[in-house]
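Run log, item B.
One chain of 484 residues. Sequence copied directly from the ordering sheet:
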Amino acid sequence: MKSLYQRQFVMMAGVILISFALLGAAFITLSYQYTIREKRDAMERNADYIALFTGSMRSSSGFDILSEPYQAYIRSIALISDSVVVITDTQGQVLLTADGSTVRSGYSGLSLPASIVDTLRGAGSFTGMSTLNGLFADSRYVAGVPISAAAVNLFTGHAEPQVIGAVYVAAEASSLTELWSAFASIYFFTAVAVLCLAFVTSSVTTLQQTRPLKEIAAMARKFGHGEYGARVAGYDKRQDEVGELAEAFNAMADSISQSEQRRSEFVANISHELKTPMTTIAGFSDGILDGTISPEQERAALQTISSETRRLSRLVRRMLDLSRLQSAENVTAQEQFDISEVTLRVLVSLETKINARGLDVDTQLPSDPVLVWGDPDSITQVCYNLLDNAIKFSQPGGVVGLSIAAKGGKAYVCVRNSGETIPPDELAMIFDRFHKSDKSRSVDREGVGLGLYIVKTILNNHKENITVTSENGVTEFTFTLTLA
């Protein structure tokens, strides 16, 4: 299995190679065609110059092509253009050749191929590769044009142009490709240098991208083996995806570490909550059995055993509720019900606790039913947990408030109490599992830090929200339900 580094490097190298191959093919094709076209145009221009000069001189002075001035002119053109100039008559018979250093004439019986002569007559010019019927040892690029000179028409008496021969300029194929070869060589060496630089840069860049991932993976393995203090360091200042990944990993590690710490605290609390009533039950039971407790005291001992048993039952029931809410099989039923009726019913069930603490109740409920969607049993548990907490943590003689308001398709249920304010740093964790803002309240209160977590879980299952504020001695919980 290839690593991310190998896959990334191979992909980038492949893209670079393909890009250079396509660019090189396009460059070579275009440069070759440009070179051929330029050379061909230059040869055709030279042939036109020679044909025009020859025709003009013939018309004006009737000079002979064997004259020294004419041969010097032809030789200079051949030298400048690095080509061979061939002069023929109208039938393709070779009359004179010049290669830049020498001029030859008097070819006996050497004629150009009939196809070239016919093409020249029909099209007015000729371009192509040919040995010119053995004049050259190998094929050369040839450009040919006719030579025209003025002649007097016997019928009209006017001078009219007449073809008196042809001029061909032939260049070696090697000369045509020299410039193209130079271009190709420059491109090849430049491409090799750029490819090497690109591969090195790609390798370094890919390595820099994958090294942080390996470090984060190593930290994840350490964290998975129980080293909860493992964190990814050195990427705090990076403003890219790697920095975000490192930050997300550290945030996840902090959250898991806190959850692990709260789990440990929860286990310790549960152990304490279980140990205390069980010790009490065992002590009083043994006292009754062995006669340590007198018959007159047995009733009080049995009442204590009953109270501690109910305490254990409440604790187990709360744990079962939590397990049920976290189960994948838990599906919230959706039906219509009156939230005002539910809250009043819960409030009545808590009347004994309210009276025991001497609390006043302030209710602000609509006169008409407030129908909402949800699971009535689950929402009843939400209201019970919130009101029970409000009663427990209200100052004696304080006020417990309950209000319901409908707005924007939602019902807002508020439960508030007057008492000790929750510290701001505790508000963000108050709905966390096992969290108890008052560490000492487990000594004389029933809570184990699960009530608000259960509330939050039920509302999450309903796709609803809950918020809390605590200031100036008033703590208020507000949750929403969808109006029916």
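Observations after the first pass:
- Residues 439-445 have pLDDT under 50 and may be disordered.
- Residues 335-482 form a domain with the Heat Shock Protein 90 fold (CATH 3.30.565.10).
Flagged for discussion on Thursday.
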